[in-house]
Each structure stands twice: as C-alpha cells, then as structure tokens.
Amino acid sequence: MATTATRTLFQLSGVSKTYRMGEVEVPVLHDVDLEIYAGEIMVIVGPSGSGKSTLLNIIGGIDSPTAGDVLFQDRDLAQLNERELTAYRREHVGFVFQFYNLVPTLTARENVLVSTEISRTPLDVDEVLEMVGLGDRKDHFPSQLSGGEQQRVAIARALAKDPTLLLCDEPTGALDLSTGRMVLELLDRLCTELGKTVVLITHNNPISHLAHRVVKLGQGTIAEARVNTERRSPHDIQW
Ligand SMILES: Nc1ncnc2c1ncn2[C@@H]1O[C@H](COP(=O)(O)OP(=O)(O)OP(=O)(O)O)[C@@H](O)[C@H]1O
C-alpha cells in the first residue's frame, strides 16, 4: 500500500548541524534535503550516532540547524526565535519518547490534562484516553500501569493538544514485541483515522515496514529515501 499523501508539510534543504563544545566541533548532519508529506508515516532508521535524534529535534523545533532551511507551511523554523519556536512546538508538535516521561505523581488523566492546558485547540481528554484504550485506567498513576499502558498515556498526552505531527523517538524501544506492536498499531490509527503526520526514529529496521516512506541515515547524510510499496500491519512485523 503506497502513500496517497502528497502535500508537503516540511521541506528541509541543505540542513547541516555541527555541535560546538569549546574548541571542538562535532559535525552531525551534512547537507540534508528531505520532504515530509502531510498524513504520512515516515520511519527514519540508522545506526547509533547517525544523527536521527538531531534531525528529529530540528523538525520538532527543539534544536536549530547550523545551516540550511526547515520550511514548515512556508515558515522557516531555522529563522524563528525562542519564543516563536516555543509557540510552534505547542501548537504543532506532539513528542513521544522511549521512556514515556510521564509525571509520576499525576494520574493518567492528569498527565494528559497538563498538555491540553498549553494548547489553544485541545481535544477532550476523556475521549483521547478512550481512543488509546485506557478509558478504564484514567485514575491510575504511572507506577500502576504497564510499560505499554504508560506509552499509550504518553501518546494520549502528545495527541490531546491536537498537534499537526507526532515525533516519536524509539517509541517501542522499552517494550516487548506484542506491546510494541500495539503501540505501532495505535500510531498507525492516528495517521489513518485522524490524519496525523508521524515521524518515527528507530534502530529496528523491521519497523520500517510500517512506513509510507523510509529514510536511512548514515553518518549524518541520507543514505537512502524510498517509498515503501508493501506496507505491513504491525501484527506482521517482527523485530
Ligand atoms: N548536544 C550535543 N553536543 C555535542 N554532541 C552532540 C550533542 N547531541 C548529539 N551529539 C552528537 O551527535 C551525534 C549524533 O547524535 P544523535 O543523538 O542525533 O544520533 P542518533 O542516530 O539519534 O543516535 P542513537 O540512535 O544512539 O540515539 C553523536 O555523535 C552525538 O554524540
């Protein structure tokens, strides 16, 4: 199943990133050109240190490139100041991390509620928790939930502010296979049913079977970018 999404959401051109630590320069991304289409699942794979998180952070407005343009709906994120980047993140980006990053002293519902409070157009918290299959676990604290359930709370939190895109950094990295598949299935549903754009980075090459498009990073450059013509259901993916 190939993607039907063709509207360009992001256009990265000549993006480079070099970290400077005193006298030492660490070049991480070199002249990356990449388009991300609205409503697609893009999986970015690559070995450790190839620059996946750096690229995701630039797309998410957490980090800025040293050179190049990051056009998002005709705005260049590389030119935004801190205040504008914060507004961009609040309005458009939902983050999902490997280790969930939930507030341990808040219930599932409260963890999700916090994110809606910084949004101008939040979704209904209870509906979102139902959507991720946790309608009956709303009042439980993270320590009372399994890893997979905590990740679903984290996805609900990312989703509840109704972002344009979900940026997922190894979302299945801490989960066993069957729980990881449930998380991928949920992300797939958010793409197909709600039209969310999903960018997911992973070490696990087989997860790229879920993608509409797959990008391979190698040492800070795009080694390969391809359309995945034979998408697989998460239940048929093994890693
Ligand atoms: N803030 C920073 N300062 C200096 N170097 C950094 C910084 N952040 C990342 N790096 C370096 O940039 C390179 C790429 O890191 P990045 O985290 O983007 O890679 P990655 O592909 O996501 O790796 P992994 O899969 O291990 O998470 C690494 O060599 C890392 O040490």
Any chance you could write out the topology, listing elements then pairs?
Blueprint: E1 8-21, E2 24-37, E3 41-45, H1 52-59, E4 67-72, E5 75-76, H2 82-92, E6 93-96, H3 108-116, H4 125-131, H5 147-160, E7 165-169, H6 177-194, E8 197-202, E9 213-218, E10 221-227
Parallel strand pairs: 3-8, 3-9, 6-7, 7-8
Antiparallel strand pairs: 1-2, 1-4, 4-5, 9-10
Helix pairs in contact: 3-5, 4-5, 5-6
Bound molecules: adenosine-5'-triphosphate.
Residues 19, 21, 26, 28, 46, 48-54, 203 line the site of adenosine-5'-triphosphate.
Task: Name a few traits of the molecule.
239 residues, alpha/beta, Rossmann fold, six-stranded mixed beta sheet, four-stranded antiparallel beta sheet, 6 helices, 10 strands, binds adenosine-5'-triphosphate
